[in-house]
Design a protein that fits this description.
Low-confidence stretches of chain B: none
Oligomer: heterodimer
Strand order of the largest sheet of chain B: 1-2
CATH topology of chain A: Arc Repressor Mutant, subunit A
Strand content of chain B: under 5%
Order of helices and strands of chain A: HHHEEHH
Strand order of the largest sheet of chain A: 1-2
Pfam family, one (chain B): HAAS
Mean pLDDT of chain A: 90
Order of helices and strands of chain B: HHHHHHEEH
CATH class of chain A: Mainly Alpha
Number of domains of chain B: 2
Transmembrane segments (chain B): 71-96, 108-126, 147-168
Largest sheet of chain B: 2 strands, antiparallel
Keywords (chain B): Membrane, Transmembrane, Transmembrane helix
Structural class of chain B: mainly alpha
Shape of chain B: elongated
Radius of gyration of chain A: 18 Å
CATH superfamily of chain A: Winged helix-like DNA-binding domain superfamily/Winged helix DNA-binding domain
CATH architecture of chain A: Orthogonal Bundle
Protein name (chain B): DUF1707 domain-containing protein
């Protein structure tokens, strides 16, 4: 059961928004790395996204040619993978963002519907 | 893998590597997945199991359902490998008991030669999936030469057992 003051979001909602959100964050703040994307998602209020959920999503975006990556030496620790958006990634983000906004607007319309008796 | 890893994290990466290999994820991609997990954990301070969950489930996310080899691919390696094992065992037993092969009337060591050729041939042709660390370029896992040498060693052991049996007769 959901509570209105619950600080976490249902997993299905996070999963639906994660790929597009990650792409948007890399486009806005890249070149960056996975841990930074996870922190920004949390700071934006999307909740804690575990590495086990985030990295396969970043991997899929890379497979689609929307992100590119290279390995950079780490400061004292192991090296890390730096990801940045490709030109195709930026174009795709514009399209997907527009489609997402249409989708959320449609969902908002549905959610705004009230029983007819309430309107009388 | 770096030396700063805890014992639990090291074991986690080893388990993850096995599950990724079982799902036929290419060695180069396995190296990336392992290095990425290690880097994330080093930055977040989380133990790997906490950040990435059960290694088997995490491996499934990269490979989807376990990849299935077509039955004839498995048969192409399994049948000659099985025949090779039978030939070796039969040859070594025949050698120990000083028996000649029925029908062909050849000495038993012929079967050891055939078994060795079959076994080494199979191990020399199966795909080797070596894991490559993207940070250092270092590869891990057995090379094809090691695999072939291991197969040869196994055949030599069986043949030696037959010879010892023959000497003790």
């Amino acid at each position: 059961m959901l509570a209105t003051d619950d600080p976490t979001w249902p997993t299905t909602w996070t999963r639906a928004a994660l790929e597009l959100s990650a792409l948007a964050l890399v486009c806005a703040h890249g070149p960056t790395h996975g841990y930074d994307v996870a922190k920004r998602l949390q700071a934006a209020g999307l909740g804690e996204v575990k590495g086990g959920t985030l990295y396969p999503v970043l991997g899929r975006l890379e497979d689609q040619g929307l992100l590119a990556s290279h390995w950079a030496p780490g400061d004292g620790g192991p090296g890390r993978k730096v990801v940045s958006a490709t030109d195709e990634g930026r174009r795709e983000l514009a399209v997907r963002r527009a489609r997402w906004q249409q989708w959320t607007a449609a969902v908002a319309d549905v959610l705004a519907a009230r029983p007819e008796e309430e309107d009388r | 893998m770096t030396d700063t890893l805890s014992k639990a994290d090291r074991r986690y990466l080893e388990e993850l590597a096995v599950h990724l290999q079982l799902r036929y994820v290419p060695g180069e991609q396995i190296g990336e997945i392992l290095a990425e997990a290690e880097a994330h954990s080093a930055q977040s301070g989380e133990p790997l199991r906490e950040a990435f969950g059960d290694p088997k489930e995490y491996a499934q996310q990269w490979a989807g359902a376990p990849a299935r080899r077509r039955w004839w691919t498995a048969a192409a390696a399994g049948v000659p490998s099985g025949l090779g094992g039978v030939a070796l065992a039969w040859g070594a037993t025949g050698l120990a008991m000083d028996q000649r092969l029925p029908v062909l009337d050849l000495p038993s060591w012929w079967l050891i030669v055939v078994g060795t050729l079959l076994t080494v041939g199979v191990w020399a042709s199966v795909p080797v999936n070596r894991i490559r660390d993207p940070r250092t370029g270092a590869t891990s896992g057995r090379s094809r030469t090691t695999v072939v040498l291991l197969a040869l060693g196994m055949c030599a052991t069986v043949a030696a057992a037959g010879l010892v049996g023959a000497l003790l007769r």
